């Protein structure tokens, strides 16, 4: 039990043939943490995510996920991409999409096993989509589609949940519902959210990771105006508002 | 219609044509659905035009060097697979622009084909049937090859359905689940290549894309899951290839063009119908 970190980056630098996107990053996220990764556009959030998923390899330093090099751990991560990357016209049902989370678990060829379908039905109920499981993915609302993608990530039976912009362009009430769902999931999983929307940082989070080429970690309660201002390079202010903290320019 | 049935009973070439149409339809329904879903119809177009090179070379060797075992269809299979692997390699690995490379292959394949056909004595009239298809010329031997390709392509398409679906829908996620995305993408390209060869015999290489996409596009309006699109597209494709044969037989029209025109009209009707339903 030497290493309890779900994610550990040691002196990581990465570049796409140019200036470094992230540089000398040291980061340790403990298990069962509930983390929000924020930072300006082009600051390296997506790169950090890809490093953790093992989709890219750092030129320098090491990335360990769940105690293994990132590349070997990807099957134990439930990943939710930004939903805009997907073709909305694609002919798939909700059930089809969530079943993709079971890939790599069962047989090599042929249909999914009954056990895989049972897992999918369970996670669909958990995210509140049990009733629409036979609907077309394209017929759902934005909030529902995101729940489908969260369900797909959960169908992997992951130990770590990584979500890229789960709440962008959603109504505040739908956002709150999603955060509540994630907080419940955090009872048993490590949850990491990347948010491109700097407007709101929910106080649900335990830790905020600020990425802008370098990385700084803060407990949510200590996130100060000055710290955020330093990161965005301009004056911002944090307003406590209901369950959220709002960062204003 | 009765006249046509009568002719089918009497003439083996019409029976071959009908069977070739049905074989082609099954491949077209299954693989066409993947191709449209993954948005690689332009790859299918490039591969189709490259088959002319293969058919031209095979015809030349057959005629000039007496390689009697070699038929143009063999050349088409080889050319289609080579073209698919080159395009696949470019998309996955090379920094060249893929549309540029596909256009280049498209034209080079045609040029090679035309040069070899030109050099082959007495083979020039075949150019028309390669370009626009002549389903009535499908021989019993061709039918075996078409049937075998069909079985292979549809077998893979059904057996690896879940994985191909995942790779087409969300490549990155499939990769994270431990799937070799490159392998499945190349597999899909090879299936596309073989399907294109089957379709070339029915409608000719110029009109392959229409038969690969139109039935799927029509089916996609009614079905919400990929396997349902496949089943429906296969049915529609059988209807238009058979319908094309029936309609073209009596007035002696080109069967390939009639088939495509039929599919096109059906597609337009569905589009207009959907519009009307929406406004009322």
Give an account of the 3D structure.
The complex is a heterodimer of chains A (249) and B (280). Chain A is an alpha/beta fold. Chain A has a domain at 5-87 and 159-248: Rossmann fold (3-Layer(aba) Sandwich), CATH 3.40.50. Chain A is built from 7 helices and 13 strands. A 6-stranded mixed beta sheet of chain A has the order 6-7-8-3-10-11, with helices on both faces. A 4-stranded antiparallel beta sheet of chain A has the order 2-1-4-5. In chain A, helix 4 packs across helix 5 (142-155). Chain A is globular and about 45 Å long. The model of chain A is unreliable at 239-249 (pLDDT under 50). Chain B is mostly helical. Chain B has a single domain, classed as Orthogonal Bundle (ABC transporter involved in vitamin B12 uptake, BtuC). Chain B has helices at 2-10, 12-38, 41-64, 72-92, 98-119, 126-132, 140-159, 161-169, 171-176, 181-203, 208-220, 226-249, 255-279. The chains are: A alpha/beta (249), B mainly alpha (280). The A-B interface holds A 53, 55, 74-75, 77, 79, 81, 85-87, 89-93, 96-97, 99-101, 103-104, 109-112, 135-136, 138-139, 152, 156 and B 33, 37, 39, 159-163, 165-166, 168-170, 172-179, 220, 223-226, 228-229.
- How far is it from the N-terminal to the C-terminal residue of chain B, by CA? 37 Å
CATH fold-level topology of one domain in chain A: Rossmann fold
Number of helices of chain B: 13
CATH superfamily membership of one domain in chain A = P-loop containing nucleotide triphosphate hydrolases
Q: Identify the CATH class of chain B.
A: Mainly Alpha
The profile of the biggest β sheet of chain B is:
none
Order of helices and strands of chain A: EEEHEEHEHHHEHEEEEHEE
Morphology call of chain A: globular
**Order of helix and strand elements from N to C terminus of chain B:** HHHHHHHHHHHHH
Q: Give the neighbour order of strands across the main sheet of chain A.
A: 6-7-8-3-10-11
Name the overall outline of chain B. globular
Low-confidence stretches of chain A: 239-249
CATH topology of chain B: ABC transporter involved in vitamin B12 uptake, BtuC
